[in-house]
Design brief:
This protein has about 90 residues and is mainly alpha-helical. The chain has a single domain, classed as Ribosomal protein S20 (Methane Monooxygenase Hydroxylase, Chain G, domain 1, Up-down Bundle). It contains 3 helices and no strands. Helix 1 runs parallel beside helix 3 and helix 2 (about 45-65) packs antiparallel against helix 3 (about 70-85).
């Protein structure tokens, strides 16, 4: 553990931010799984709605530097391709 007051604070702030980022990533992964389940079941309207939500959440995460912007573009592109193949 750090002895300097500012270093202790940085450790605490980093732990909080890490927990928040992890929860946001987990939430995004959950929505992606819901999307893939909807696509596999053939529920196209629900899949389109979920894709919109996933896209919005991923782009917000990219703005906050939780996920890299190119990774977001790649994931959204792959999800859109899956949906287009079913339609």
């Amino acid at each position: 553990m750090a002895n300097i007051k500012s270093a202790v604070k940085r450790i605490l702030v980093t732990e909080k931010k890490t927990a928040l980022n992890k929860s946001k990533k987990t939430e995004i992964k959950t929505y992606i799984k819901k999307f893939e389940n909807a696509v596999s079941k053939g529920e196209l309207e629900e899949a389109q709605l979920l894709l919109k939500i996933v896209d919005k959440k991923l782009k917000r995460a990219a703005q906050k530097n939780i996920v890299h912007k190119n990774a977001v573009a790649r994931k959204v592109s792959r999800l859109q391709t899956k949906l287009n193949k079913v339609m």
